[in-house]
Design brief:
Length: about 180
């Protein structure tokens, strides 16, 4: 089973286990909604889909973005606290800039300049704000090609367009499932 399908099924199973309410899945009032309205008016579920694909953390039957996720030299880490993540991040920064931080996996190499302190990216609000700014820039450059704009968020290298596009298609699949889950709520 491919990773995207596993992620979609896990999200669906986790949400199915939640108590039924007027909205079993909703991002109303969350950082995802706030930042989507502040930047380029992107659907908050699309931002959440990016974060799920970027930093998914499985907790029993549920999956959610991990605000403390780190990817250091292409190896994923999921520290359990902000303090542990900050310590690991600071140690890694002495050796490499190939580090992605937080729920939206903001690249220190390409986007570290957007914050004064790299550990600030471990704050969910800051991370989603910066990730949304980056994504909105790719939307503007994408000329209507949402899959490629999503892909460029993850793989900005123009020589890797197919890799970027495949990533974008995966995020779109997760986004569509989140739309359905919200509608079913």
């Amino acid at each position: 089973m491919d990773c995207t399908l596993k992620l979609i099924l896990t999200v669906a199973a986790a949400l199915a286990l939640q108590p039924l309410s007027s909205a079993a899945f909703s991002l109303k009032g969350t950082v995802w909604e706030q930042e989507s309205n502040r930047a380029c008016k992107v659907d908050p579920k699309l931002l959440y889909a990016i974060a799920l694909v970027e930093s998914k953390n499985y907790e029993g039957p549920s999956v959610k973005p991990n605000p403390y996720a780190l990817n250091i030299d292409n190896k994923a880490y999921h520290p359990s606290t902000r303090e542990k993540a900050a310590d690991q991040l600071n140690k890694a920064l002495t050796k490499t800039r190939t580090i992605a931080v937080g729920a939206m996996q903001v690249s220190m190499r390409w986007n570290g300049h957007r914050v004064s302190n790299p550990a600030d990216l471990l704050d969910l609000n800051t991370n989603v704000r910066v990730g949304t700014q980056i994504f909105c820039e790719f939307i503007k450059e994408g000329k209507g090609d949402l899959a490629l704009a999503l892909g460029r968020y993850h793989t900005p290298n123009p020589d890797l367009e197919q890799v970027a596009r495949d990533y974008g298609v995966n995020v779109l699949r997760v986004w569509r499932r989140l739309i359905v889950l919200e509608q079913e709520g």
